[in-house]
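Hello Y.,

Per our agreement to keep a running log of every chain we model this quarter, I'm adding this entry. I've kept the format consistent with earlier entries: sequence first, then predicted structure.
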Amino acid sequence: MAQFMCRQAKRRAAGLRELSIQANDYFICFLTKPCDVSVFNTKRVFPLKFRGKLGRYPPWPGKIVSPPKDLKKPRGKKCFFVKFFGTEDHAWIKVEQLKPYHPHKEEMIKINKGKRFQQAVDAVEEYLKKAKGKDQTHSDDKSKSDKGRKAAKPMKIIEEDDEDAFKGGSSDKEQTDSDPEPSSVRRLVAGTVTGFKWESSQVKDDPHFHHFLLSQSEKPASSMEPITKRLKIIEEDTGSTSIQAADSTAINGSITPTDKRIGFLGLGLMGSGVVSNLLKMGHVVTVWNRTAEKCDLFIQEGARLGRTPAEVVSMCDITFSCVSDPKAARDLVLGPSGVLQGIRPGKCYVEMSTVDPETTIELAQVITSRGGRFLEAPVSGSQQLSNDGMLVIVAAGDRSVYEDCSSCFQAMGKTSFFIAGEAGNAARMMLILNMVQGSFMATIAEGLTLAQATGQSQQTFLDILCQGQMASTFVDQKCQNILQGNFKPDYYLKHIQKDLRLAISMGDSVNHPTPMAAAANEVYKRAKALDQSDNDMSAVYRAYIH
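Predicted structure for the entry above:
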């Protein structure tokens, strides 16, 4: 036993010595095989943690670094804390998943031709160049004192399963200060997001954006498995496929904007925030709104003005629209001086409004009949999330248009999903999401009023709710607004009721019961009758107290 403990101590000491030399080439490695990982971002105000089983995906260069002091090593796993080049993402990676950089460099480059991968490799080379320069300077300064010393032996990765193995490395601050600036943000995530809680407001100067490409099948997928943008599709047992495309977001929050001319139609609660973020990130944007005065602010910020939807489409390569309902979406395309009149072969039209799938399919057909390219991309979020550039985009239709919109989606959102199959799939998915959200909001309002009616403290109810499994920013903000009597619209009540109505109709079309949504819809209809249409969806609370 004493001998075993002695060996353990020696291995720990060796680990400390080896891990303290961060610039050594052996620590530059490739992540190459499927593994269970938790991905962290050490630059965030509140690190997110994602866990899930990753499928096969292209290799990615990384560097073994010291973990933050408060981040524990997973028990029972022989692994190292790796920072991925071209990103600010870190993960615990098993030893067998790592390969030395130089011996496998050419092999990996042959496998991966993607731009993002090449940028990551360039970041490695730049890092090694800087490290070599520092070593050369250091050796020149101490050439006399170092003369006669033996060359360092090649390093070995210590497989000791010891949580203290990294304590001898340099601090996290020292690591990030010397690392090259990333050219993209890549996150290896899968499955369910677990254990994260917003503790402060999201910061746009350090965004994290993900693309997911998903296929629909009769057998529902149980997981989403994103990888980097090499467009190599992962086949799942469930029949689903998914891809994560790395964005071009640098650490300072800048985005490389597309050189395509962007048009935007509709400057409502959601559209205004989207356009503002497109302009902030350097896109060339032409705007139009039914009420022309709403364009003035954006013209001052650098946007161009289009006199009609047709003119905007004819002037731009990609035109987005975000309006209130199916009728408005149809009128915008098919009406006088509408989108259809400006469509020419190659022009792209992106419908971001939440509408029924039948409307989406109709618009896709008329756009493509003129040689245009169509993408539906409704968004999940609110006015605040739109302003913060933290929307979730759900897209379907022409996948090449989705890829052309990459920098735009990065500017306006934190995540985008592409659902394979026919146009209309994104509309279906968004209606289901909003159906759940609307029903949930009505249930929260019902709980608050029941608490009051039974003599319970509404604030205590909220405090308990926000400490349980349903805790979320959504619950906290909506309940606080209700208790303060603040119903300033963040998402119009009339729009969530519209979404419930469309979701119920969609259920009817496939003979699927939606009794919960139907009950919630009736409560929202009562709130509308109480003149709450233009208030926030949380004003459904008033349907219970009048």
